[in-house]
Design goal:
This protein has four helices and 36 strands. The protein is mainly beta. The strands form six sheets. The chain has a 22-stranded antiparallel β-barrel. β17 and β18 form a beta hairpin. The chain is globular.
């Protein structure tokens, strides 16, 4: 075994042992007495610090967000369609990956590549999503590292492009991960999990004040997972270690530093031959060439200071270093005949990113007019390398498969390779004016200067400088304190190729939001018209093909969503989405077609009910969910469709005592099986998976 591999394995064993030790240590700490209802022992209420909004850890209903303007705002006053999945909802459904977290969110399509676990697969309003952490850019969902939900306090989904808030981004919207930070009181949890496909997992999340007056606090979060997947010859291992310090030298100043390390060691799927129907666990790739390896280290700094008299300053910065890669043999069986054609495909990528944002906010009143103004600067620098290998593999007899082994990538010339050097400098302005506590005008302007460079395998370098200004206008009217309506216009911009203009998006949206008095609930409805222009396509009339900007893609839709704590014992999450997409590219052979992997109809509902304990019996919570996935075309050519399906999920938890809980979660309870993508091969939706977790909190 190479020295580097032995070092990685040794480090992994050390990390696992350390986390197991932490789990045992914190799980058996003496219990601290407290007067607290047994239904809220999972997480204490989070103290709001500076401009953060994660004060909803004990609820499934969020009330505030920074998604609309980078200023903490009541969701009723935000002129955008925003869904927030809190830590309580994530835990109740037992979600670990981003796709699992987003399954019950309006406007979001997930799981459309079945057992392919190379990336997070989800789309917003028909388009790939841009990804952020604490509103600093990270990556796109497709092609990036799969995120670990345990690292985050909550996940915010903003539907519709808005580059004035996020910078260069996709027009469908953004997913923002809110980092777990230290709190001002002692808290913690430790858990062990076991389940289907040899799933074994331990995790901890705890913190306390290092100084009694609360000026310095810490938080440690981590988990180690060892598991397979339902596919033969598979692996699904994960490691997360994260530590944070928060310093509060005064009531006006907060500084947090978070260091985190994430690693995934998994595998992906080969697909199934066309015209066949095999069990999900059948494998037609190569066991010796089937891996997904992701590793990332990040350092984040978050700072807030209140000068008084309405003036505050905030600054966030993050440095990240990542390595990722995959290799597998996939079926591309165009003729559907046995033996099935196969191909090797592999990628190795590495990158370093530094991104920083600093802004001033000033709040004041002019008579009956309230004003909030935010001005800021943002800078991002990215250096990355990527190489891709592609080669024919031996066909496989799927009636009697014989494996032939992998390939040595070092002996094979890369098919493509690119070095990326990008820097983006931005200045932005957000203005919010409130007239007589009823009419709210939200205005956004942003200018991005993008210096982009690509170097190919042959050493050829292409450079481009783009200067783009985007705008946004939203009007919100508070019909009553509980009911608001809004209309908005927003623009987005995103470079696609260096020799053509960036792709641009514009969206018109009309919405309604209702928060009934006397109930912790939020009901929302939105209708939108979204267009993506300057679409980049390869013009094959040239040799070699060159990118050109042509035509547009349109998406129109309606989204309905409800999150409600109906009473102290009953919670509800429900969503419906209608998405109508059309390719209006005038030079495309697919003009008039719908976008691939975008169902026209999506619907979901999740209910959980708590049966209060009596005597020696503790509380019991029963959860049940249903997800309807409509048919979707497998590609822009619209030649084949996925199957429509209804999937059932379930959860159960029992309070063994006030601070200890046993829970069981089941995804795809009925083991419903249907085709997802079906172009050169068939993929199926994930099958039934059962996990049981024993958790102690304090």
């Amino acid at each position: 075994m190479p020295i580097e591999s032995r070092f990685r394995n040794a480090r992994q064993r050390c990390l696992t042992a350390a986390l197991l030790g932490c789990t045992a240590l914190v799980a058996f700490q003496p219990q601290v007495s407290r007067a607290q209802d047994s239904r809220s022992i999972i997480l204490d209420t989070v103290t709001i610090e500076a401009n953060r909004t994660d004060d909803d850890a004990g609820s499934i209903v969020a009330s505030r967000t920074m998604a609309g303007s980078r200023m903490a705002t009541d969701l009723l006053d935000t002129p955008a369609s925003v869904s927030i999945i809190t830590s309580k909802e994530i835990r109740q459904r037992g979600a670990e990956t981003a796709e699992q977290v987003l399954r019950y969110t309006a406007g979001v399509t997930t799981d459309f590549y079945g057992g392919d676990d190379r990336f997070d697969y989800y789309k917003l309003r028909g388009f790939d999503a841009s990804v952020y952490r604490d509103w600093l850019p990270m990556q796109k969902a497709f092609g990036g590292i799969r995120e670990d939900a345990f690292a985050y306090e909550r996940i915010e989904v903003v539907k519709g492009g808005n580059s004035t808030v996020t910078g260069p981004s996709e027009p469908g919207g953004a997913v923002n991960y809110v980092t777990k930070l230290p709190r001002t009181q002692r808290f913690g949890e430790a858990y062990v999990t076991a389940g289907s496909f040899n799933h074994r997992e331990v995790g901890v999340d705890f913190g306390d004040n290092l100084i009694k007056d609360g000026t310095l606090s810490y938080r440690l979060t981590g988990r180690v997972q060892k598991a397979d997947k339902e596919l033969d010859y598979s692996k699904n291992d994960a490691t997360l270690l994260m530590g944070g310090l928060t310093w509060r030298p005064s009531d006006q100043t907060t500084l947090s530093v978070v260091l985190d390390y994430m690693k995934r060691d998994g595998s992906t799927g080969s697909g199934f031959p066309l015209g066949t129907s095999f069990p999900r666990d059948r494998f037609f790739g190569e066991p010796d060439f089937n891996y997904v390896e992701n590793e990332r280290t990040s350092l984040s700094v978050l700072f807030d200071h209140d000068f008084g008299n309405g003036l505050t300053f905030g600054a966030n910065a993050r440095y990240s270093d990542e390595d990722r890669g995959f290799g597998y043999v996939y079926i591309w069986d165009a003729d559907g005949l046995n033996p099935a054609d196969r191909y090797y495909f592999a990628n190795a990528s590495s990158g370093e990113q530094f991104v920083a944002d600093a802004h001033l906010q000033y709040d004041t009143d002019f008579g009956s007019i309230g004003s909030r103004t935010l001005v800021g600067l943002q800078y991002s620098d990215l250096s990355a390398n990527s190489r891709t290998w592609y080669a024919p593999a031996s066909p496989i007899d799927y009636t009697d498969p014989v494996y032939t082994g992998g390939i040595d990538l070092d002996a094979l010339a890369p098919y493509t390779g690119t070095r990326t050097d990008d820097s983006i400098a931005s200045v932005y302005l957000q203005e919010e004016l409130t007239f007589s506590d009823r009419l709210i005008a939200t205005i956004g302007l942003r200018h991005d200067r993008m210096d982009l460079s690509r170097t190919a395998l042959d050493g050829t370098t292409t450079q481009a400088d783009f200067n783009k200004t985007t705008s946004r206008l939203g009007l919100t009217y508070k019909i009553t304190p509980e009911l608001s309506t809004y209309v908005s216009y927003a623009e987005s911009v995103l470079p696609a190729a260096l020799t053509v203009e960036p792709e641009e998006g514009e969206q018109y949206e009309l919405g309604l939001k209702y928060r009934p008095a006397g109930m912790n609930a939020l009901f929302t409805a939105a209708a939108y018209d979204l267009r993506k222009t300057n679409i980049t396509r390869q013009d094959t009339s040239e040799s070699p093909p060159v990118p050109r900007t042509i035509g547009e893609i349109r998406a129109r839709g309606i989204e309905l969503e409800a999150r409600a704590e109906v009473n102290p014992d009953l919670n509800l999450v429900a969503a419906y989405s209608y998405t109508d997409t059309e390719i209006t590219d005038r030079l495309s052979p697919y003009q008039g077609n719908s976008l691939g992997n975008v169902p026209r109809h999506l619907a979901s509902i999740w209910l959980d009910y708590t049966l209060q304990g009596q005597g020696a019996r503790g509380d019991m919570t029963f959860g049940i969910g249903a997800r309807y996935e409509g048919t979707a075309y497998s590609g822009d050519d619209n030649r084949s469709k996925s199957d429509a399906a209804v999937l059932i999920d379930a959860a159960y938890s029992y309070a063994l005592r006030e601070d200890t809980e046993l829970s069981v979660t089941v995804t795809n309870l009925l083991d419903e099986k249907h085709r997802e993508a079906a172009s050169g091969a068939i993929t199926y939706n994930p099958g039934r998976e059962i996990t049981a977790t024993l958790r102690r909190t304090w």
